[in-house]
């Protein structure tokens, strides 16, 4: 079974951890079934493969370092190196370099650049400077973290989410981290989207998938940028795979982050129904074949879309794997 | 009075600290004399200006960062941020990023890249990437450290000391730090020396100087590379300034570092006489008008060169300032 997951940062990383747990269980079950048949058949056991297509719109250059917050959050989380309480960055982090940069009068002291994290950016920046791609740098970093899934950046090209406010345009990180998402949003812009192409393997993974999961990440600034990479949305709508979305909104509030502010900016209600409608049913030109909402949102309807309600709090891998199992069931209908 | 000092790293930095102390005392004395004349004369008090021309041959790119060990050692030392026991790097240093880079399988884990120090390299590397010169980056970094003297890199151009060994050529840092100066030296090469030019202000400072001091730094790999920048040696030999050298060898051993290994490689005796002879008397095509040696080396003679013996251990600024005072006296003969 081949599963593709569209993922942003913290929520996407937790979801992927559950997908990996589900895939491991599924693989073991498949293996066992294959072993029982092995006496008579020699066919290889089909593998359960998970490919994450990760948002690159948050990527930013600071202090000359190329920083990819969502890729790193997914990598650290799946590699067991993330700070669980803070959600982002490395466990046991220190902030010596950040303080020193501030002492030099650095202009980005609002950005949480940890010492451990910084080594990741150094390795990546050096590789990019040497002419390697973001995909190659990501693969190199993953040699250490062994996330247990395939991690692909949505695009290797320049692609950044910018926020147009009444006072001017700023990088998404500046709006989100520096200004805490407070400045009014006129619109989000994906800088580079006109010319960017999907990273190697992205479109093929979608085309070959049995199931595409749209993770419970921010629909506007995490999933939105992935779908804005030319070819990605098209590949999903044309894929033979079933496409199931998981709501990141539970009872009118985002599980994590500031999806409410982002949804308001694009005129969409902050609810499971609102986001389900934003994605839309594939049968009527949208993205999804099924929509998972939390039990508190049971009764949610989205035109043309089967909706299933179940607990969507990703407390641990077990709870999240149950969400994935439900999505698989919904896809099989 | 205008003093130019040729300086390398740790020894050069300590010497400069003493030069600064001497200059401060000299400036105060000059000021007092001027004040006594002020009732009748309105001439401005002449300032005592110290310009350090710092070796760039140790500069190296690691992890994509441009690292300038001698410039930083001088800057940290004069700015009060250096580690006094270790000699190089920052006081209160930590090594988180270095350990993380090693965890990524980095190839330069032998290099002491501290977290605090790293911020300096980040600021410099970003500025260079933006098209600024090493001189401009140095001036920017000095806005924080306020070394109290003018610090000029010998050159803004590519210029690196390489070591040719029987097994191949390596960067000076690799020979010195990684291999502890053990590999046999066939010769030292100054990569880029053919096309490099002196950094802005270097030749003018020499031309305008009243006194040029050749610091007690390694004559082969600290002073040598400065003199190898096209135009520098010529500017010194043609300068109206007196040129006095200070021996970094006391009683057949270098005060700091591995000058003995370097001198052997160029066939020069590791002694005050040997190094004095290497620099040579300006009167016979060499560099110096005077040579300061330690009291244990009293009796040292160098053809054509006045030699003065005095204690050359730079225990503190007072001891070092006394060396400078002796050099000034020697220059005035």
Textual characterization of the structure:
Two copies of one chain form a homodimer. Chain A has a seven-stranded parallel beta sheet with strand order 5-2-1-9-10-13-14, with helices on both faces. A three-stranded antiparallel beta sheet of chain A has the order 7-6-8. In chain A, strand 3 (60-62) and strand 4 (65-67) form a beta hairpin. Helices cover 41% and strands 17% of the residues of chain A. The first copy, chain A, is globular. Chain A has twelve helices and 14 strands. By secondary structure, chain A is of the alpha/beta class.
* Rg result of chain A: 20 Å
| Number of H- or I-type helical stretches of chain A | 12
Structure class of chain A: alpha/beta
Strand order of the largest sheet of chain A: 5-2-1-9-10-13-14
Topology, element by element:
2 copies of one chain form a homodimer.
Chain A: E1 2-7, H1 10-37, E2 49-54, E3 60-62, E4 65-67, H2 69-78, H3 96-103, H4 115-129, H5 134-145, E5 150-153, E6 160-165, E7 168-171, H6 172-178, E8 187-191, H7 202-208, E9 211-214, H8 219-228, H9 232-238, E10 242-246, E11 249-250, E12 253-254, H10 259-265, H11 272-279, E13 290-293, E14 307-309, H12 317-332
Parallel strand pairs in A: 1-2, 1-9, 2-5, 9-10, 10-13, 13-14
Antiparallel strand pairs in A: 3-4, 6-7, 6-8, 11-12
Helix pairs in contact in A: 1-2, 1-12, 2-5, 4-5, 7-9
């Amino acid at each position: 079974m081949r599963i593709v997951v569209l993922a942003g940062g913290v929520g996407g990383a937790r979801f992927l951890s559950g997908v990996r747990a589900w895939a491991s269980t599924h693989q073991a079950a498949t293996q066992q079934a294959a072993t029982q048949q092995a006496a008579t058949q020699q066919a290889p056991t089909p593998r359960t493969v998970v490919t994450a297509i990760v948002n690159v719109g948050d990527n930013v250059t600071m202090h000359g370092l190329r920083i990819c917050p969502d890729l790193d959050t997914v990598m650290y989380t799946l590699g067991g190196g993330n700070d669980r309480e803070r959600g982002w960055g490395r466990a046991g982090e220190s902030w010596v370099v950040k303080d020193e940069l501030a002492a030099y009068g650095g202009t980005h002291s609002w950005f949480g650049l940890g010492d451990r994290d910084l080594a990741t950016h150094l390795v990546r920046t050096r590789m990019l400077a040497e002419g390697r791609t973001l995909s190659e740098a990501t693969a190199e970093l993953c040699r250490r973290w062994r996330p247990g899934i395939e991690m692909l950046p949505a695009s290797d090209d320049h692609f950044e989410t910018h926020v147009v406010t009444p006072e001017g345009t700023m990088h998404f990180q500046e709006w989100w981290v520096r200004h805490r998402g407070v400045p009014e949003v006129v619109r989000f812009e994906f800088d580079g989207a006109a010319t960017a192409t999907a990273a190697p393997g992205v479109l093929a993974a979608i085309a070959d998938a049995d199931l595409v999961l749209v993770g419970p990440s921010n629909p506007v600034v995490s999933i939105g940028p992935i779908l804005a990479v030319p070819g990605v949305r098209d590949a999903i709508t044309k894929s033979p795979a079933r496409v199931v979305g998981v709501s990141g909104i539970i009872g009118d509030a985002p599980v994590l982050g500031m999806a409410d502010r982002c949804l308001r900016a694009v005129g969409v209600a902050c609810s499971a129904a609102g986001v389900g409608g934003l994605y839309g049913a594939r049968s009527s030109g949208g993205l999804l074949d099924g929509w998972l909402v939390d039990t508190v949102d049971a009764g949610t309807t989205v035109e043309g879309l089967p909706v299933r309600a179940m607990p969507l709090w990703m407390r641990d891998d077990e709870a999240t794997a149950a969400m994935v199992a439900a999505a698989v069931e919904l896809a099989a209908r």
